[in-house]
Amino acid sequence: MNWHVVVDNMPILAKGALLTLELTAGAVAIGVVIGLFMALARLSKHKVVRAGAIAYIDFFRGTPLLVQIFLVYFGIPMLLKWQTMPDNYQYTAGILAMGLNSGAYIAEIFRAGIQSIDRGQSEAARSLGMTQAQALRYVILPQAFKRTIPPLGNEFIALLKDSSLLSIIAIQELFYTGKIIVGRTYQPLPMYMAVALYYLVMTQLIAQWVAYMERRLGKNDLR
Amino acid sequence: MIFVKNLHKSFGKLEVLKGIDCHVREKEVVVVIGPSGSGKSTFLRCLNKLEEPTSGEIIVDGIPLNSEVNVNAIRREVGMVFQRFNLFPHMTAIQNIVLAPEVVRKTNKEEARKIGLELLAKVGLYDKADEYPDRLSGGQQQRVAIARALAMKPKIMLFDETTSALDPEMVGEVLAVMKDLAREGMTMVVVTHEMGFAREVGDRVIFMDEGIIMEEGEPNEVFANPKNPRTQAFLSKIL
């Protein structure tokens, strides 16, 4: 076994890891926005809105992310009748697919968080003359958000690991980079161990950050 | 101030209110008593539409409670205090109080804070302005909740068993604040099990049972000479 391969390729792997982080961050941003809207839609009084949210969540939770990546990557150019794919299109498609997917999971996390807040809170807010939107914004969501931090952390970690699937549309993230190096060096064991280690370091960073946020935001709310 | 006509409310098949007629005058303190499950709280919650009446008519301060617009307008004028305080746990006492004036009434921050501190002083908690609710006792939390409702300068205050969740030694401090309010001429509807309060502060007592008003009248009259047998039975159990 040739451990030199790992040392020599550390910088290239780091570049892949950085891209992995960027892809995940982009997907998280899209996922949180979609998740919030879908959670609120899921709790709406209007049947049609609710049904739409349920359909969205069922689809993106109930089908493989890999299939969704292909659907977005090949589907959008077909729908928009593009002759050629624009430069770097795979990044947009990859982030979008992951964001759409995590939006469904995050929607359920937010919904659970919102529903876990005592009904008396919204009654108190409404009894003071606040509209439903004001009650959500100032009273319900700040409390719900705190409670969603641990499951959100899980989701971010899952998303980071799942971003390795984007190697299938030739995005040179961490796993893809590792694979290329293995193809060149024929040293799969040390290389993939190095790849795994990079993932582990990144997921640990997220876990630490989540724990920190939990401590910081949780200190005034012991309930 | 409040007119209620033939108010009915059902939860599924269970009819909780079976035709309530009632009239509360300005500056009047009406105390609602009755056994648990009699519909007192539901009745109170219909008055600011936290519960949607099944049928009947409610007019508060000249505004009929029907459309969503009216509901928010009404709720600005009608303060409510709950059995379980329902303070916002992520905000300090003063933040709890200034929130609604700021976002609903658009009062500017300094003005809202000034009014908020005055109200905290009024309920005897000026020095607790920056404490979070979980650092306050039940009685203190409930007094903050009263100050929070008052910050909207309501014309009417509704009290829903505001002392029932308190340890006995804290009941007095909350009742004292309510008595002050009554003395200042606030229009109040109070659901309570505190008969001493009803007798001392109430202008009128309403006895409810099984979703209807069984008896109403001046407190001394109702407590001394209850006419309805159900009122007699209820009072004999608790007095």
From TrEMBL, chain A:
Pfam family, one: BPD_transp_1
Stretches that traverse the bilayer: 12-41, 53-76, 88-107, 189-212
Major place of residence: membrane
Any one Gene Ontology cellular component term annotated for this protein: ATP-binding cassette (ABC) transporter complex
Membrane topology: Multi-pass membrane protein
Compartments where found: Cell membrane
Keywords: Amino-acid transport, Cell membrane, Membrane, Transmembrane, Transmembrane helix, Transport
GO annotation terms (biological process): amino acid transport
A GO molecular-function descriptor: transmembrane transporter activity
Keyword RNA-binding: no
Residues in ABC transmembrane type-1 domain copies: 17-210
InterPro entries, sorted: AA_ABC_transptr_permease_3TM (IPR010065), ArtM/GltK/GlnP/TcyL/YhdX-like (IPR043429), MetI-like (IPR000515), MetI-like_sf (IPR035906)
Family: Belongs to the binding-protein-dependent transport system permease family. HisMQ subfamily.
UniProt-listed NCBIfam families: HEQRo_perm_3TM
Name the record gives this protein: Polar amino acid transport system permease protein
Automatic annotation (TrEMBL), chain B:
Keywords from the named record: Amino-acid transport, ATP-binding, Cell membrane, Membrane, Nucleotide-binding, Transport
Membrane topology field: Peripheral membrane protein
Protein name (record): Polar amino acid transport system ATP-binding protein
SUPFAM superfamilies (UniProt xref): P-loop containing nucleoside triphosphate hydrolases (SSF52540)
Record's subcellular location: Cell membrane
InterPro entries hit by this protein: AAA+_ATPase, ABC_ATPase_HisP-typ, ABC_transporter-like_ATP-bd, ABC_transporter-like_CS, MetN_ABC_transporter-like, P-loop_NTPase
ABC transporter domain sequence ranges: 2-235
Database matches in Gene3D superfamilies: P-loop containing nucleotide triphosphate hydrolases
PANTHER family xrefs: AMINO ACID IMPORT ATP-BINDING PROTEIN, GLUTAMATE_ASPARTATE IMPORT ATP-BINDING PROTEIN GLTL
GO molecular function: ABC-type amino acid transporter activity; ATP binding; ATP hydrolysis activity
Keyword Transport: yes
Main location: membrane
Record GO cellular component, one term: plasma membrane
Family statement: Belongs to the ABC transporter superfamily.
